[in-house]
Each structure stands twice: as structure tokens, then as C-alpha cells.
Write a structure and sequence with these properties.
The chain is mainly alpha-helical. It has five helices and three strands. Strand 2 and strand 3 form a beta hairpin. The chain is elongated. The termini are far apart.
């Protein structure tokens, strides 16, 4: 009976230590990945900042490109999509972006101007 209790206690302690080590390893790997892809994470955050401006639901691609310099056009579009934005092409063939989460606000503003 004592042997079974010691075996159980050893298994529980070993399992707990194993869990802690795996958790630390996961946090470290996540930190490394974030550091490797830091530019993309910051670019998404910046894109969300511009697209969340309280006065503008839409931003032109040219404005975003000017403020998020250093990216090729298609790479910037991928960043905008990862940030949760959708693209619209206006009648004058200009490209505009808006956060999908602000779609209700956009529709409400459009209805007010009619």
C-alpha cells in the first residue's frame, strides 16, 4: 500500500514538473516567434490604429501605404487583411479599406448622409 502511495505521489510530482517545463517552453517559443515576426505584428497594430480612427471608418490605400512605408503593395494588403480589414474599390477606381468590425458604423453613417 505504501509503495502505491509513493508511486502515485512521484507520478503526480513528476507530471506537475513536466507541465511547468512545457509551459515555460511554450512561452519562450511564443516570445521567439513574436520577435521573429515583430515587424508584421507592429504593422497590424498600426493598421488597426489608423482604421479605428473615430472620424474615419475608411482609409485610402495610399494613406495607409504612406504611413506604413516599407512594404510592397501586396504585402501591405495581406497585413490589412490580417488586421481584420476589407477592401472596397470606389467609382473612381481608388482602393479603400475599413475594419470589418466597423461595418455597422459605416452603414449607419451612410444612411445618415442620404
Amino acid at each position: 500500500m505504501e509503495t502505491a502511495l509513493f508511486t502515485l505521489a512521484g507520478t503526480l510530482v513528476g507530471g506537475f514538473i513536466s507541465y511547468l517545463l512545457q509551459h515555460q517552453r511554450y512561452k519562450q517559443e511564443l516570445k521567439i516567434l513574436r520577435e521573429e515576426h515583430k515587424t508584421e505584428f507592429i504593422a497590424e497594430t498600426t493598421a488597426k490604429h489608423f482604421l479605428n480612427h473615430k472620424s474615419y471608418t475608411d482609409r485610402s490605400f495610399e494613406t495607409l501605404k504612406k504611413h506604413l512605408g516599407g512594404f510592397e503593395d501586396d504585402e501591405l494588403r495581406k497585413i490589412l487583411v490580417r488586421a481584420g480589414a476589407i477592401r472596397t474599390i470606389r467609382d473612381d477606381n481608388t482602393e479603400w479599406w475599413r475594419l470589418l468590425s466597423r461595418m455597422d458604423e459605416f452603414i449607419e453613417n451612410k444612411q445618415k448622409t442620404r
